[in-house]
Amino acid sequence: MRQQYLGSIAAAFFATSAMAASPMDLSIIDRAVADFTGAGIGQPGGAKLPVDRRLRLDDCQTPLDLQWFGRDQRSVQIACPTAGWRIYVAVDSRMGAASRFGQSHGEAIVKRGENVSILVRGNGFTLTRQGSAVEDGAQGEWIKVRVNGKRAEALRAMVIRPGQVGIDLP
Signal peptide: which range, if any (predicted)? Predict the structure, then answer.
C-alpha cells in the first residue's frame, strides 16, 4: 500500500513538472531573427523560412543569444543558455552577395534618416538595437548613427547591408 502511495506521488510530481516545462513559442524566435538581421522572413537578408513548427524546444527563461554563423553570414545561430538548446536559421543572402559584388562605386545603400538595425558584435555575443542613420553610406563605409530614444551622441558604425550597420568590438 505504501509503495502504491509513493508511486502515485512520484507520478503526480513528474506530471506536474512536465506541465511546468512549457515549449518555446517559435514565433518569438522568428521575431528575434528578423530584429537581428533587419529583414523579415523571405526578404533579402532575412530568414529564408520561419522556424520549423515541428520543433519542441524548452521555453527560454533568459534572453536569446543570437549571432552570425559561418564565414559568409548565411545563417544565424540562436541559443538559449538556460535551456541548453541551439538552433540555426538559414538567411537569404542574395542581397548580401549582390551588394558585395554588384554595388556600383560607393552608391549609398543607407540613407540619412533611415531606420537601421545596429549590431554590436564581440567575442561570443551580438547585441541589436534599432536606430537611425545620421549620414548616407555605401557598404563598408563608416557612418554616424543614433540609437532610437536616446539623446546621446551619435555612434560610428560600418554599413553592412541595406538597413543594417555594425560595430565590432575587440
Answer: 1-20
d(CA 140, CA 74) in angstroms, rounded, equals 18
The three-class DSSP label of residue 16 is helix
Of the residues 57, 92, 127, the one at which a domain ends = 92
CA proximity to 112, closest of 141, 144, 152, 160:
144
Q: Taking a C-beta distance cutoff of 8 angstroms, is the pair 40, 60 a contact?
A: no
Residue 145 sits in a domain whose CATH number is 2.30.30.760
Q: Three cell numbers at 57?
A: 524546444
Number of domains in the chain: 2
Task: Mention every residue, 6+ apart, whose C-beta is less than 8 A from residue 145.
Answer: 116, 118, 131, 132, 133, 134, 154, 155, 156, 157, 165
pLDDT (mean) for 9-37:
72
Task: State the residue range of the domain holding 61.
Answer: 26-92
| Mean pLDDT within 125-144 | 88
Q: How confident is the model at residue 16 (pLDDT cuts 50, 70, 90)?
A: very low
CA 30 → CA 55, 72, 103, 146, distances in Å? 13, 21, 29, 26
Burial of 33 from C-beta contacts in 10 A (0-12 / 13-18 / 19+)? buried
Tens-digit pLDDT profile for residues 38-78:
888 988 888 999 999 999 999 998 888 888 887 677 888 99
